[in-house]
Amino acid sequence: MGKLTRRARAKADYFGFVGAREWPLAASGLGVLLGIVTILPSAVGVVLSIVALALGVATFTRDVRLLRRRWAGFEFTTIAAPFPVAELPPPAAYPQAEYLSVPARGTALVSAAIDRELWSERHTVEVAGEPYRLPPALKATAPHVLPLRARGRLLFNGPVVGMRGDPLPATGARPAPIRLHRARFFDAVCSNELGTLRITRTDTGEEYDLRRAELTDSAGALRELSSSSLADHVGVSTVAFTTDGKLVTVRQSALNAVSGLLLAPSGSGSLEPRDLRTPDGGTRRFLHTAVRAGMERELCEESGLSPADVRETKVTGFARWMERGAKPEFFGLTELAVDSAEVARRRPVSGERLYSAGLTLFDVDLPAIGAALAGGVPLSEALPQRLWEDGSLPLLLALRAAAAWQAARV
Fold first, then answer.
1. Most buried one in 78, 142, 177, 292, CB count within 10 A?
2. How many Cβ atoms from other residues are within 10 Å of residue 278's Cβ?
3. Residue after which a domain boundary falls, among 179, 199, 227
4. Is residue 287 part of a domain?
5. Which sign, positive or negative, has the C-alpha torsion 169, 377, 408, 246?
6. Mapping DSSP to helix (H, G, I), strand (E, B) and coil, where does residue 265 land?
7. In this structure, is residue 75 part of a structural domain?
8. Among residues 32, 38, 291, 348, which one has the least CA distance to residue 161?
9. Distance (Å, rounded) from C-alpha 213 to C-alpha 200?
10. What's CA 379's distance to the chain center, in Å?
11. For the chain, how many structural domains are there in total?
């Protein structure tokens, strides 16, 4: 029943999003239906109803033609080439920033200095009063993009949290609060997720490339999140270790929209508005407490663990996922209070079973990985081969950040 309910909800979210933008067509269709229903058994009523029905059919036919013309007005091409890091240098404000590219998985902008700043847990947050709205250029393509992205996948228009600020190191005083905003997942699909699409208008041949139109600032570098116009929904991922030292990973199913059939972190998803609230209904003031709440929620949903099974989570890293509109991603390290045998008996909550094919546990020596990375060994050689070959980009980045934090503690 859980799977059927989620499939029904995915369809309802999809038709609701499209219908809200194409309501004139729905109104015309309703007029045709009412014209049929209101045919009365009298001469005058029949004549009036036939006239109303004819007008409704004509209007409806016109609207269908206009809709088909508009929906055929764009051509979409997948950009298969690696992200052009040489053409888009990191923001000048990002210290020690570098691009990390993983074949067939993606490209991330990382900064060891920003990671270390997160360890200090100094950043506060404030939430915008108004929800995110798609800018006009992206709103125009939204009805065309969503059907393309939803094909063969289950997408839900759930609430997410976006980010308008960068967790940059600050000298002396506490950094300025990072501004967050409420958004919906379809806002992200129709903005950030255009990062691998080239959109061409069929009537003019004009091309729209999100990487150049939305990600590039006036100096030709990557925009900071503070000046972005995208939804920039916050990703949260954590790698959890059992009491006997096993790494917990989630095998993603083919229905997963981003990392299908790859190994994912122990908990991975998007920050949600509920993560900004404390258990007693208060508001979280610090970035690390909100992000940690999202990580632990995702961990419990995807692994079947309970909050009582989680001993502690540390926020260890930050990155921006370039192929996904340079969206922000946070990474953590979770210490569990249960062993691997207990974890192996757990199952994800019913709503996550469509996306998870089960759990896989690995022996991973984080301190050794951290020492190797500190010594200049590439991530591809520092990680166990199976994890490097089958791991999703969030898993690889989460292990990198956790290993660096472990190495710094020695």
1. 292
2. 12
3. 227
4. yes
5. positive
6. coil
7. no
8. 291
9. 13
10. 24
11. 3
Tokens 């509920």 found at? 274
Q: Is the dihedral of CA 82, 87, 93, 96 positive or negative?
A: positive
CA distance linking residue 385 with residue 372, whole number of Å: 14
Find, among 29, 13, 271, the residue nearest to 146 by Cα: 13
- With the CA atoms of 332, 338, 343 and 347 taken in that order, what torsion angle do they form, in degrees rounded to the nearest 10? -80
Considering the domain boundaries, does residue 78 fall inside one? no
The first and second tokens of residue 95, run together, are 């210290």
Q: Which domain holds residue 353?
A: 85-124+234-409
Q: What is the helix (H) or strand (E) element at residue 320, kind and residue range?
A: strand 310-321
Calculate the alpha carbon distances from 85 to 100, 108, 399 in Å. Answer: 9, 10, 23
Residue 71's pLDDT band, with cuts at 50, 70 and 90, is: low
How far apart, in whole angstroms, are the C-alpha atoms of residue 220 and residue 87? 8
Instruction: Kindly state whether residues 242 and 188 are assigned to the same domain.
Output: no
Summarize pLDDT for 276-311 with one digit per residue, the tens.
Answer: 999 999 999 999 999 999 999 999 999 999 999 999
> Which residues, listed in sequence order, are joined to residue 308 by a DSSP beta bridge?
none
Number of H helices, E strands in the chain: 13, 15
**Contact 285/376 with Cβ under 8 angstroms?**
no
Q: What is the distance between the terminal CA atoms of the chain, rounded to a whole angstrom?
A: 49
pLDDT digits (tens, 9 = 90+) for 179-232: 999 999 999 999 999 888 888 888 788 888 888 889 999 999 999 999 999 999
Angstrom CA distances, 287 to 125, 292, 328, 329, stand at 6, 8, 13, 13
DSSP state of 249: E
- The C-alpha atoms of residue 189 and residue 232 are separated, in whole angstroms, by 10
Q: Is 23 in the same domain as 55?
A: yes
CA distance 74 to 54: 32
The answer for 250, left when phi > 0, alpha when psi is -120 to 50, beta otherwise, is beta
In a shared domain, residues 89 and 59: no
Q: Give the count of alpha carbons within 13 A of 147, CB side only.
A: 10
Q: Using DSSP bridges, classify how beta strands 97-102 and 106-111 pair: parallel, antiparallel or unpaired.
A: antiparallel
- Residues with Cβ within 8 Å of 80's Cβ and at least 6 positions away in sequence, in order, are none
